[in-house]
Write a structure and sequence with these properties.
Helix content: 40-55%
Order of helices and strands: EHEHEHEEHHHH
Strand order of the largest sheet: 2-1-3-4-5
Radius of gyration: 27 Å
Strand content: 5-15%
Shape: elongated
Distance between the termini: 67 Å
Structural class: alpha/beta
Amino acid sequence: MIIGYARVSTQDQNPELQADALRREGAEQIFQEKVTGALRERPELSQCLRTLRKGDMLVVWKLDRLARSLKDLVEIVQDLHDREIGFKSVTESIDTTSPGGRLVFHIFGALAEFEHDLIRERTIAGLQAARARGRKGGRKPSMSAADVRKAAAMLLDPKMTKKEVAEHFKVSRTTLNASLIRNS
């Protein structure tokens, strides 16, 4: 069975151009949604992927209609391959049921892995450079060292509760406790 998936990014766009192309490719069932590709939750895509069975073919109008990133695309197509489901992109003329189509996806997979490694290396180098300049990562502390000293002094009063001290400094009790421990 040939199943199509069409997605447009905004409510103003019309998915009919994609649906017509998918029907010309022989799609017997088409899942359509109007949602940005950046969102993780795409209910129609999830339903489409659950519907596909061994021997079926998933057809999309364009690769960017299916996935949020190259890595995401490779993962989806690999899952389809593992389940013995074909994949075809009309615009890019990619068909994973052919040797050429599988080659293209192996290249995509290698590019996605290369891109991931580059990003990771740049991130590590940036963090090391920042540390060398004396910068620390993460959020700034909610309480200054002076605030923590004042809070500790306030807690010496047996009538003062941690809740009251936390409210005074406009932080949660958890933040107060963490600050007290960090600065002790």
